[in-house]
Design brief:
This protein has a domain at about 85-150. It has helices at about 40-45, 70-75, 90-100, 105-120, 135-145, 165-180, 190-200, 215-220, 230-235, and strands at about 1-10, 15-25, 30-35, 55-60, 65, 75-80, 155, 185-190, 200-205, 210-215. The protein is globular and about 50 Å long. By secondary structure, the chain is α/β, with parallel strands linked by helices. Keywords: ATP-binding, Nucleotide-binding, Transport. InterPro entries: AAA+_ATPase, ABC_transporter-like_ATP-bd, ABC_transporter-like_CS, ABC_Transporter_VariousFunc, P-loop_NTPase. This is ABC transporter ATP-binding protein. It comes from Halobacillus kuroshimensis.
């Protein structure tokens, strides 16, 4: 579970996120949407400890990210929206680095690496340096590294970007399986059709405030029953 209470972040005296309250329950795929500059990326960076909060609190499974950051970071896996990191490492070196950071036992690590990289069709490229990978392959190795220690909470920022249809389907199935185990998937994306098909609940943020939070059914009932997510998203954000 993710609990965000009165989270606030200012840049140059201006609030990027203001008094944000949001609870992401276990057993759900939770979609997080917002136009450019809405505060979506700032919120995710506060959730993961990349940015400090100016006020409020954020906890992962009851562990506060500000007061106990190391323990909190063991609760989640984070896929950023950029995959151009550690490019000089070989794929296997990158995955072993994550295994060392999160104390994944060698036997478990070997099994998980094989399962994840074969699922994403990059197993044969693990001895190549990541800078030789295509964008899609880089995204796959990042996702594999994040999921290696089997965190309870997944925080995925545009994770499907650059993935081929087969790998995209594989990751979506993994997300469904993770939520079915009673764990948490927090999923940020600009692909509204994916949200409509995949997410149990959604939140729409704009100008640092949550404009809507609820199920797809509740969103459609609040507006017009025949509206699709794209129309609802535009209706919620166009006048802000």
């Amino acid at each position: 579970m993710i609990e965000i209470k009165q989270a606030t972040k200012n840049f140059a005296g201006k609030a990027a996120v203001k008094d944000l309250d949001l609870t992401v329950p276990d057993g759900k795929i939770f979609g997080f949407l917002g136009p450019n500059g809405a505060g979506k990326s700032t919120t995710i960076k506060m959730m993961t400890g990349i940015l400090p909060l100016d006020a409020g609190s954020i906890s992962m499974n009851g562990v506060d990210i500000s007061t106990d950051p190391m323990k909190a970071k063991h609760q989640f896996g984070y896929v950023p929206d950029r995959s151009d990191i550690f490019l000089r490492l070989k794929g296997m070196e990158y995955l072993n680095f994550f295994g060392d950071v999160f104390d994944v036992p060698p036997n478990v690590r070997k099994e998980k690496i094989e399962y994840l990289t074969k699922s994403f069709d990059i197993y044969e490229a693990l001895n190549d340096q990541i800078h030789t990978y295509s964008h899609g392959m880089r995204q796959k190795i990042v996702v594999s590294g994040v999921l290696l220690h089997d965190p309870d909470v997944w925080i995925l920022d545009e994770p499907l970007t650059g993935l081929d249809p087969k790998s995209s389907y594989t990751l979506k199935e993994m997300m469904r399986e993770h939520a079915a185990k009673g764990k948490t998937v927090f999923f940020s994306t600009h692909v509204l059709e994916v949200v409509e098909q995949l997410c149990d609940e959604v939140a729409i943020i704009n100008k640092g405030h949550v404009q809507f939070r609820g199920s797809m059914k509740e969103m459609k009932q609040q507006f017009q029953e025949d509206n699709n997510l794209e129309k609802l998203f535009l209706e919620l954000t166009q006048n802000e």
